[in-house]
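To: structure desk
From: M.T.
Subject: fold request, one chain
Message: Could you run this one when you get a chance? Sequence is below, nothing fancy, just the single chain.
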Amino acid sequence: MESRSAREESTPFFATSFASDVPYLRSNIYRFNVPDEKVGWSVPFPEYDPPDHTDPKAVGKSWSDPDPQAADNIRWNAIDGKINRKSFICDYSFDSMSRPMNPMGRTGLRGRGLLGRWGPNHAADPLVTRIKDGKLQFVAIKRSDTGEWALPGGMVDAGEEVSQTLKREFSEEALGGKAADDAVHAKWISVDSKEPLYATHEEFVALLKSVHGIQ
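Reply: Done. Structure tokens follow.
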């Protein structure tokens, strides 16, 4: 979701950046370049004019939201029936098109992309580890769409507990060393591996290393 934080002064949990020279997943849409110092909504950026992209495959589905301007019954920043529309960061604000704005700041893109919901899209990515030959390892799956290694996981279904999602996604994508859904292979990877990881999963592995005192 493209957005503005209701608490602009707060420090985000992850300082996420997005590459503007790589198209958005499964599209030819490029993000508007946002310098690191202008990610925060409190920093003036009058020339900011990102493209508006919602993939047609994410429109009109049972799991996707209608346009906010055409839906006046959505309960934002709350539990909306079986859908959790609460952010774990803070209450989010809205833009001039009644769309929720990203509490983390500017992303270089408007719209939902491939996501189903306006606002928070809750996902669960299990980080399963072991020690082998003195090395800390985690389970990773290879994504069929990008060829990158990633943590197994997926979106939390409406009415589903996060613990249920973790079990379901790990079973579907990783158990038995073979994959399903978006994955084509699964294996153990050492935390010091140079294998490129999908999206922000490198940050999760960095946190794992920090917990174990690994540089």
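Reply (cont.): Strands lie at 52-54, 79-80, 83-84, 110-113, 123-124, 129-132, 135-143, 149-150, 154-155, 183-190. Let me know if you need anything else for the meeting.
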